[in-house]
Amino acid sequence: MPVALVAYANGSEDMEVTSVASILDRGGVKVIRAAVTADGSKEVTLSHGMKVVCDQHISECAGPYDMIVIPGGLDGSNNCAANEHLVALLKANKAQGKYLGAICAAPGLVLGAHDLVGEAKATGYPGCHSSIKNYTAEGVTIDEQHLLVTGKGPAFSIDFGLACLKVLIGAEQFDKVKQGMLYE
Length: 184
Description:
33% of the residues lie in helices and 23% in strands. It has six helices and eleven strands. The longest helix has 13 residues, at 14-26. It is globular and about 40 Å long.
């Protein structure tokens, strides 16, 4: 069973973090919801006020993970980018040939800011992508060579979640999840 760490920070975009975690769960991926907070709290408040109690605090997470996912939201992305432990986990995952996923502001403000995009083709929220060398305006990208999945913003939350799932599980299980969600 693949294992994915999904970062939840104060200010993370509600739709992006909720969609990806739910879709990965539906596909049989073990999802670890990790609170990225400065005070050690496992409770976060997402960008539109939703409160979430996470499984673990980021300081309890060791990896490696089959994928680490960073949702967007300007404040959430900045909080993730500032967390040294999370950044160390991202760098270790990349070094071990594991997937990274990021959507909205996170591809540029988290991954790009810490030199984790490199030559990969990636998308992200317009205006937050200056650190992405091979930026594309596509809604979702999967760069299999560089083990990177990126999404443009909230409107692409479900597509992004499905793209993350697609790289982690087999085609048959992936198709069952899409059918169960009535996704065509």
